[in-house]
Design a protein that fits this description.
Length: 244
């Protein structure tokens, strides 16, 4: 381990062994993630050139990349920490590219929906210059959806920034949306309490609470669209329908 002090060399060797154990043991992996969160945030911050806040989307991207590194790690790939940093760097670059691309779309008020609207079939909700068939019906559905979302404290203009960016996160959101839609009890609880039934859904789907909380507005909006009378809007969130 060139250029490393004896203490750093010992840490690297220790982490290498822990990473191999965490690869096979879920409990060990959870402890490993908690222990290395400062390293994960610091690695993400170094790539971004700024501080990464706890609980931020940047942190989640780096965390997912770190887990990916654990699952793909072998001793032949060298010391784990540099290897994991490489994986995180790649994922952060992908995330930054997606963020830059999303900034090209300008979110607008629901009143402008008849002139500027596109719900991307990838699962993102973005408003851009585009034409829709039957604009008046679409505008009316947007109005009704805005009324339905208001008690949740959600505004239609919130949705572009709430939509999941990575395929892995979209898959997690899809699981949550399907779980709620397929259960009358969970759907009723969501609508009565104006909140996601986090505890039950987390237990049933395995989706971390942090992801559900981060994309709460998006998940609720899609559930309402797919569970309500929104024929014009439904096709634009069809990627959130669970595949058979």
């Amino acid at each position: 381990m060139e250029h490393l002090s004896p203490d750093d060399q010992n840490r690297h060797r220790s982490v290498d062994q822990i990473a191999l154990e965490a690869k096979e043991q879920e409990a060990k992996l959870e402890d490993f993630l908690l222990e290395e969160m400062p390293f994960i945030r610091a690695s993400a911050g170094k790539k971004l050139g700024r501080h990464v806040e706890e609980g931020s989307e940047e942190e989640l991207v780096a965390l997912e990349a770190f887990v990916e590194a654990v699952h793909s790690y072998t001793p032949e790939k060298g010391s784990f920490l540099p290897f994991s940093r490489l994986v995180m760097d790649r994922r952060m670059i992908d995330w930054m590219r997606r963020e830059e691309k999303s900034k090209r779309f300008v979110p607008m008020d629901p009143e402008d929906i008849t002139r500027h609207m596109e719900f991307q079939s990838s699962g993102n909700v973005n408003l851009v210059n585009d034409q829709m068939e039957n604009k008046s019906d679409a505008a009316e559905e947007i109005h009704q959806l805005s009324i339905a979302l208001s008690p949740y404290g959600i505004q239609f203009r919130d949705l572009p920034n709430q939509s999941p960016k990575s395929e892995k996160t979209r898959k997690s959101c899809r699981k949550v949306i399907s779980a709620i839609r397929e259960s009358e009890i969970l759907l009723r609880e969501m609508r009565e309490k104006k909140a996601l039934p986090l505890k039950v859904v987390e237990k049933n789907t395995g989706v971390p609470r942090k992801i559900m909380e981060r994309h709460r507005k998006y998940i609720i909006a899609v559930v309402e669209i797919l569970s309500g009378e929104y024929p014009c809007l439904r096709p634009y969130v069809r990627s959130m329908i669970k595949e058979d």
